[in-house]
Specification:
This protein is α+β, with helices and mostly antiparallel strands. The protein is 31% helix and 31% strand. It has 2 domains: 112 residues, Archaeosine Trna-guanine Transglycosylase, Chain: A, domain 4; 73 residues, Methane Monooxygenase Hydroxylase, Chain G, domain 1 (Up-down Bundle). Strand 6 and strand 7 form a beta hairpin.
């Protein structure tokens, strides 16, 4: 099996949401540039990049400079699609590995293309006793019907998996999710999540 290169050029999808590895992202596509991107990704089995908008808007208008993006994003691959009644295309994408944007160029149709370098895989670690509360909390969240509908792939013994899924599911601001995404050490993310959960519980 050939190793994936450490750098690539991928289309970028700026969003107001953060995707983590193994996460599930349902999207409704209606803009021509993204419909083209999706059909190309599906035809060629190519990924695209999900990046959080730092400032501005992704809605293109004449004279607009486009959104300001965070530099760290997550590669996504389309795993399901369906035509919606409202003329939109519904897709489900799954998060893969993280990348750092090196350079962004804009196509004539205003689709952004990122030259990205992939970040190293996070180390696989067990969940320490000090983070058992987070596992209990995640197990509670997993009983919720709307979470069950996402059909998430979770390993409750893996610090990475627990941290990624909690980061997605907790009601915290996108910028905070982004800071959790940018951490490379799973236990550091769990410690930060413990702090955030205690704050939420007030």
């Amino acid at each position: 099996m050939s190793m994936n290169p450490l750098t690539a050029e991928i289309p970028l999808f700026p969003l107001g949401t953060v995707l983590f590895q193994g996460g599930v992202l349902p999207l409704q596509i209606f803009e021509p540039r993204y419909l083209d991107m999706v059909s190309r990704c599906m035809r060629e089995d190519k990924p695209f990049g999900v990046v959080l908008i730092r400032a501005g808007s992704d809605t293109w208008r004449p004279g607009s400079t486009g959104p300001e993006l965070f530099q760290i994003g997550t590669q996504a691959r389309i795993v399901d699609f369906n035509q919606l009644g409202n003329g939109r295309l519904g897709i489900t994408a799954r998060g893969e590995r993280k990348f750092r944007i090196r350079e962004v160029s804009e196509q004539p149709d205003h689709l952004l293309i990122g030259r990205v370098s992939y970040l190293p895989e996070e180390p696989a670690l067990g969940v320490g006793d000090e983070h058992r509360d987070l596992v209990d909390l995640l197990e509670q969240l997993l009983t919720h019907p709307s979470v069950q509908a996402l059909d998430l792939d979770i390993d409750l013994k893996d610090a990475r998996s627990v941290g990624w899924r909690l980061s997605e599911l907790l009601p915290i601001e996108a910028e905070i999710k982004q800071s959790l995404l940018q951490l490379q050490l799973p236990r550091e993310r769990l410690s930060e999540l413990t702090r955030l959960v205690n704050k939420l519980r007030g």
